[in-house]
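name: query_chain
kind: protein
chains: 1
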Amino acid sequence: MELRHLRYFLAIADARSFTGAAGRLHITQPTLSQQIKQLEQIVGTVLFERGGKEVELTAAGRLFKPYCERILKEIEQSRLAISELEGLMRGTLRMAVFHSFSHSMLPPILSEFALRYPGVHVTARLVPRSEMERDLVNGELDMAVAYIAGDNEDIEAERLFDEELVLVVGSKHPLAGRKSMPMRELGKLPLVLLTPEFGARQFVDRFLGENQLQAQVVLEMNAIEPILATTRDSGLATVLAAGAIVEPAGLNTVRLTEPQPKRTVGILWRRNGHRSAAAQRMAGMIKAAYAETAAPHGRRLVALKK
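structure:
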């Protein structure tokens, strides 16, 4: 079996047509058909259903496809690793970042990285935690910056810092003047929270469940900014990371206690996956920036938010 067999197989699976795939590959259709017959002889089974207008994968073909994709990705990563051994800082860096990326320290770090290493093309995507984990494990991402969940054995994390969650209310809310509040009182308040696909919401739900607490979630939104706007102008409250309050006008934070909800922010990696020189350099810059900010003599910690 040769790599071209795998590339040809994936091209047909994507195009769902021998003719279309042959055009993309710049080879003749008879040549492509012959190569696929060779591949099917090697694996010992038929990979495509050829009867209809479109070519469909057989059950064996569907099983075979993710292995092909993984092999070609590993080959590409090994090629990049060899290039890096020769001192080349080039290629791509694909990373995922938390939901409130624009309010964090990351934008200036990314811009500094781009100026230092112009040969590396960086793509940073804002994605929910579930999508972030999936793409890390599948090799679609090189790294991610998010809250550490610790419930996925295929992902490992490097700690950046701990952050507490607070209750946020508008200036006219009955709790606006309070400095702190026990967690058990959350059950008395109508809340607006992030939708369940976000790590911040999952943390809140898990924390409440572990402490036998319930909350009245009356409204859900998929972004922090509209949640804060709604909280500012209504009798609703929300629970967010302390660093999410970047525009405090009209908002008050109440510290939650008994117990105090905290979670850890970190850099996420695919366990046992290859870490390119670009990814390691980016991670080093992120860790250095947050370590400096968290120092006793440093500036106020600007918290990462998903």
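note: The two ends are 43 Å apart (CA to CA).
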